[in-house]
Specification:
Helix content is about 80%, strand content about 0%. The protein has six helices and no strands. Helix 3 packs antiparallel against helix 4 and helix 4 packs across helix 5. It is rod-shaped and about 115 Å long. About 20% of the residues are buried.
Length: about 170
């Protein structure tokens, strides 16, 4: 029994010291790993922030370009009929949207859904305006009817999408 106490007298302090050293080293490495992860996250945010803001800018530009006011001014061509103008307007909206599809990576699903809805509503509005015209109507007739229908909307889907994108972008500033 005396030998056991003698061994315990030397091994117990060594075991306590070993445990204390282990806990200190463990805490140190855990702190360093957390610090490294925070620095990595900060560096990543520093690189992603400009790309994300550029995506918001491009989405706003897309939405502005598909709004009837801007779309009609940009696409109008003299001497075309309403059917040709309708096709040009719809194709332009689709091209603009397709060109910016990759931007959905940087915005929330909710905001992207509003962008998609705005695109679909604008196409529906163009088709509705064209459907209300006679077969021999000219492009300016379609433009007028489209602007009337757009002005009569209770909620402008493009304005709603722009507001959502601006609000979301503001959370990152």
């Amino acid at each position: 029994m005396l030998i056991f106490l003698e061994i315990l007298k030397y091994t117990l302090p060594a075991a306590i010291m070993l445990l204390a050293v282990y806990l200190i080293i463990h805490r140190f490495f855990k702190h360093e790993a957390l610090k490294f992860e925070n620095e990595r996250h900060r560096a990543m945010q520093k690189e992603i922030f400009p790309v994300r803001m550029q995506a918001y800018e491009r989405i706003i530009l897309l939405l502005e370009r598909i709004s009837p006011n801007h779309l009609i001014l940009r696409i109008s061509q003299p001497g075309i009929n309403a059917l040709q103008f309708q096709a040009l307007l719809v194709q332009n909206i689709r091209d603009e949207f397709d060109h910016n599809l990759s931007q959905q990576l940087y915005i929330s699903s909710g905001a992207w859904e509003l962008v998609r809805t705005a695109r679909e509503e604008m196409i529906r509005l163009i088709n509705s305006a064209a459907g209300q015209l006679r077969g021999d109507s000219q492009a300016h007739d379609l433009a007028s009817r489209l602007l009337e229908l757009h002005a009569s909307l209770e909620h402008d889907p493009v304005a709603r999408a722009i507001g959502a994108v601006k609000e979301e972008a503001g959370t990152f500033l």
